[in-house]
Amino acid sequence: MQAELIVSAARPEQFPKAGLPEVALLGRSNVGKSSLINRLVGKERLAFTSSTPGCTQVINFYRVDDLLILVDLPGYGYARVPREKTVEWKRLIEGYLMHRPSLELSVLLVDARRGWMEKDLELKRWLEFYKRKYIVVATKVDKLNQKEEYRGLAAIRSEIPDGALVPFSAVTGRGVRELWQVISKTRNR
Ligand SMILES: Nc1nc2c(ncn2[C@@H]2O[C@H](COP(=O)(O)OP(=O)(O)OP(=O)(O)O)[C@@H](O)[C@H]2O)c(=O)[nH]1
Ligand SMILES: [Mg+2]
């Protein structure tokens, strides 16, 4: 699989020309968006990851095999980001989510241990309101034992209309194949 960064956009004016179908990764800071991208394409250091939340502050567009573009959006819900940054973030993200014609699917990442937080639900309602197609991925499932996982996934599922949820781990690779299947299915519809 070939994957490369095409552009890092700090403002909507810097988005690349819309072309290939795009799949956007959304979720709180530190939930594992960049790690998921790396695992999906099988490259350890394509997207920059960090244990410090708020690491990705721009929208990164990664082209995969001349087939589609994975879009790594900056995470939300990080309290130490100053207020004016939050406003900028909203303009950047909403500018992308509302107006991007090539956006085919949003992947909403939720930490399997924490479940839904208010900001996640806000974003989920927002996607539903604007009729954007999305799927939910529960991240970091490797950190849970069987019982915790069962409970965690059930709690996340309870908020999804059709109950479709992909349990994922960037550490073990669990969910990679299933996520690719979901992505190609939406694309062929
Ligand atoms: N155990 C475990 N750790 C993970 C997993 N995915 C990510 N992490 C860790 O969680 C931290 C954050 O991961 P990132 O991929 O940088 O998170 P992000 O959502 O891109 O964060 P922002 O760019 O700040 O929005 C890093 O320390 C990762 O190593 C996972 O599946 N399992
Ligand atoms: Mg990131």
Q: How does the major sheet shape up?
A: 7 strands, mixed
Looking at the overall shape, the CATH architecture is 3-Layer(aba) Sandwich
* Average pLDDT, all residues: 91
Structural category is alpha/beta
Q: Helicity range of the residues? A: 25-40%
Fold-level CATH name: Rossmann fold
The domain tally reads 1
Distance between the termini: 23 Å
What ranges have pLDDT less than 50 throughout 5 or more consecutive residues? none
Question: β content, as a range?
Answer: 15-25%
**CATH level-1 class:** Alpha Beta
Can you walk me through this structure?
The two termini are 23 Å apart. Helices cover 33% and strands 22% of the residues. It has helices spanning 33-41, 83-99, 118-129, 146-157, 176-188; strands spanning 3-9, 22-27, 59-64, 68-72, 103-111, 134-139, 165-167. The chain is globular, with a radius of gyration of 15 Å. The mean pLDDT is 91. It is α/β, with parallel strands linked by helices. The structure holds guanosine-5'-triphosphate (GTP) and magnesium ion. Magnesium ion binds next to α1.
